[in-house]
Design a protein that fits this description.
This protein has 191 residues and is α+β, with helices and mostly antiparallel strands. The protein has a domain at 101-182: Ribosomal protein L9, C-terminal domain (Ribosomal Protein L9, domain 2). The protein contains four helices and nine strands. It has helices at residues 3-32, 58-65, 76-108, 130-141; strands spanning 35-40, 53-57, 71-73, 111-116, 123-128, 150-151, 156-158, 160-169, 172-182. A hairpin with a 2-residue loop joins strand 8 (160-169) and strand 9 (172-182). The longest helix is centred in the middle third of the chain and has 33 residues, at 76-108.
Length: 191
């Protein structure tokens, strides 16, 4: 290779390098204003709810939403996959709601009676808690219910009838009558 040819090659590479650098900078500048479509995985304040397809600035998506797994790129494959997931989740919710409605139908007919020891002033020894109510439901109806679904502000400390609500599902709530009675003592006299 001659000396003259080498100078031309070096000059061309510098020129080419500068051209590509300018081209890259102009592309970056151009990308700053581009909006991209994304699917939100979670609710994002001032942007949208879970599952919505929204347009945001490319930098916001690239630097914040995507790294924190708050969103997915809205490609055709991701949209189909997201719709399939949402359909499956919706089916699960419907099954859970139907199950809760069946349990609610059974519980509407029931009145729970709990017997406890009592002091002279009409106060109970101990208290009736949500766990006691769930155990009584299990004995009487053979239903498994989580004690956290029983909405009891404070434990029952006196004898009487109290209305207690059970939130079996976000859309299904049933009220239940709980009666607390004095435990009858069987005193047998021996002669």
């Amino acid at each position: 290779m001659s000396f003259g040819k080498r100078i031309i090659d070096v000059a061309y590479s510098r020129c080419h390098c500068e051209r590509t650098k300018r081209a890259k900078q102009s592309r970056i500048h151009f990308l700053k204003g581009i909006k991209v479509k994304i699917i939100l995985r979670e609710k994002v304040d001032n942007l949208g709810e879970r599952g919505e397809i929204v347009q945001v600035a490319s930098g916001y998506a690239r630097n914040f939403l995507l790294p924190k797994s708050l969103a997915l790129r809205a490609t055709s494959g991701n949209i189909k996959q997201w719709e399939e997931r949402e359909r499956i989740v919706q089916q699960r919710k419907e099954r859970g709601k139907l199950k809760a409605l069946k349990i609610a139908q059974k519980l509407k007919k029931v009145r729970l009676i709990l017997e406890r020891d009592m002091g002279e002033e009409g106060k109970l020894f101990g208290v009736v808690t949500s766990q006691d109510i769930v155990q009584e439901i299990k004995k009487k109806l053979k239903l498994e219910i989580d004690h956290r679904k029983v909405n009891l502000e404070e434990p029952i400390r006196v004898i009487g009838i109290k209305e207690v609500s059970l939130k079996l599902h976000p859309e299904v709530e049933v009220s239940l009558e709980v009666e607390v009675k004095k435990k009858e003592q069987n005193v047998q006299e021996t002669k």
